[in-house]
Inverse folding.
């Protein structure tokens, strides 16, 4: 009942810099998403182009970034927390997609809601795959063979050396 | 003021997503992204509730909804990790998991958003 909680990953305590990098990226991604939402005015029953654009662009960018970080670039400490988890995660949004869809259903614009959902899912998935392919096709040395895709939020403790454990200078 | 609120809310939302994802994902099979599923569905419920409250009290153009909804919950939930995970699963040994990820995320997300909107309308 009162047994102390056992940490699941005791071998990898949270480096404070990682959370700071995620916070900075998240703030920037949120500002960028807000800028797009301000620039693209969407009527209450219209197609939500702002969220659609942000989500598809962010999916492509995350595909590129995770592939570069895990397969092509030398190990880095902050690129993934800042750019992938922070910026791409903060730039794109799932909750706004869901609420916008439900509100269009409730406004009697079921066609717009269904089309918005389907287009977001198809275009977002294709964009993520295209980002992976684009990053693999670029020039430059390859660090790891292209195999099973890595988890974008995994810090790399499974497939390649933990950047924070690397000796020498911070990258 | 709105921009300052968005900066803070976006930073907190992203860190919260990372911490919830890591805490949930640590207890489950690594193959299926249940951490991001929990993040996204819980965020849909909260954003639906906040939007329902705002609609019930005049409209969605209010500053607190921009900061908490667009900023905090917008940054907490994520679409790019969801699509990336779907591609990863579709290309894995069990591509069915990719289809399941889409169906469960969208189904539960829509249901949570609708429940939140109804709940918020009562406040």
């Amino acid at each position: 009942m009162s047994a102390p909680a056992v940490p699941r990953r005791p071998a990898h305590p949270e480096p404070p810099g990682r959370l700071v990098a995620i916070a900075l990226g998240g703030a920037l991604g949120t500002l960028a998403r807000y800028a797009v939402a301000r620039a693209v005015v969407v009527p209450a029953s219209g197609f939500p182009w702002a969220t659609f654009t942000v989500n598809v662009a962010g999916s492509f960018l995350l595909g590129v970034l995770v592939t570069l970080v895990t397969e092509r670039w030398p190990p880095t400490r902050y690129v993934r927390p800042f750019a992938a988890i922070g910026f791409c995660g903060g730039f794109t949004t799932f909750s706004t997609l869901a609420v916008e869809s439900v509100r269009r259903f409730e406004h009697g614009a079921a066609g717009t809601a269904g089309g918005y959902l389907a287009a977001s899912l198809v275009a977002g998935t294709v964009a993520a795959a295209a980002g992976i392919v684009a990053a693999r096709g670029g020039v430059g040395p390859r660090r790891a063979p292209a195999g099973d895709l890595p988890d974008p939020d995994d810090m790399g403790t499974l497939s390649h050396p933990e950047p924070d454990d690397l000796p020498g200078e911070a990258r | 003021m709105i921009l300052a609120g968005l900066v803070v809310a976006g930073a907190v939302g992203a860190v919260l997503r990372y911490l919830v994802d890591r805490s949930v994902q640590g207890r489950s099979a690594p193959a299926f992204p249940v951490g991001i599923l929990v993040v996204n569905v819980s965020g849909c419920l909260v954003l639906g509730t906040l939007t329902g409250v705002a609609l019930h009290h005049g409209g969605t153009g209010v500053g607190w909804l921009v900061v908490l909804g667009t900023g905090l919950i917008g940054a907490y939930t994520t679409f790019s990790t969801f699509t990336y995970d779907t591609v990863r699963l579709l290309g894995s040994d069990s591509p069915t998991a990719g289809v399941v990820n889409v169906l469960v995320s969208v189904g539960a997300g829509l249901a949570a958003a609708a429940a939140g909107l109804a709940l918020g309308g009562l406040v």
